[in-house]
Amino acid sequence: MFKTAVRAARPGALAVRASAKPSSSSVRAFSSSVRVLSGGPPPPSLVGPGAKPGTVPTDLEQATGLERLQLLGELEGVNVFDDSGLDASRLGTKANPVLVPSFDVERIVGCSGVPADSHDVLWFTLKKDKQARCTECGSVYALDYQGEEHHAEHHH
Ligand SMILES: [Zn+2]
C-alpha cells in the first residue's frame, strides 16, 4: 500500500521536479504523511463539548484537563486521584521524608502527627524540590513530582 502511494505520487512529483527542482525528500515527506493519516485512533479529548445555546453549562460540559479527567473517572466509578492518606507510620526526616505524590508543582498537605491524629491537623504548602516540616511534630515531607518537566516550567 505504501509503494502504491509513493508510485501514485511519483508522476506529480516528477512534474514538479521539472520546474521547481524539489529534493528527493519531497517524495519521502509525502509517504510519511500517509503513515500518520493511517495511524491509530485519536487521543481522548479532555475538552468538554460546551453548553447547548441558551443553557448554562454543567461541570461535565465545560470542565477541561485534569478536572474533566476526574469527572469522566467518576462516571465510570474510577477514582482518578489517589486521595488515600499519606504514610503516617513514621516521622519524616530530612534524609527520609514522607513522599507526597503530585502531578502539580505544589500540594497542600495536612499533618496530624505520628501516629495519625496525634495532633490537630496542621496544613501547609509543599513545593517541588523543597521539603516542608510540620511545626507541630517535626515530620518532614517532600513532593514526589510525577508531572511532565516541561509543564512544570510554565509555573515559574
Ligand atoms: Zn505534624
UniProtKB/TrEMBL annotation:
Question: What GO molecular function annotations does the UniProt record carry, in alphabetical order?
Answer: metal ion binding
Q: Is-annotated flag, keyword Transferase?
A: no
**Ranges of residues in domain C2H2-type:** 134-156
Which keywords annotate this record?
Membrane, Metal-binding, Mitochondrion, Mitochondrion inner membrane, Transit peptide, Zinc
Look up and give the membrane topology term: Peripheral membrane protein
Q: What biological-process terms (Gene Ontology) are attached?
A: mitochondrial electron transport, cytochrome c to oxygen
Q: Which residues bind Zn(2+)?
A: C111, H119, C134, C137
Q: Which CDD domains match?
A: Cyt_c_Oxidase_Vb
Give the protein's recorded name: Cytochrome c oxidase subunit 4, mitochondrial
**Record organism:** Gymnopilus junonius (Spectacular rustgill mushroom)
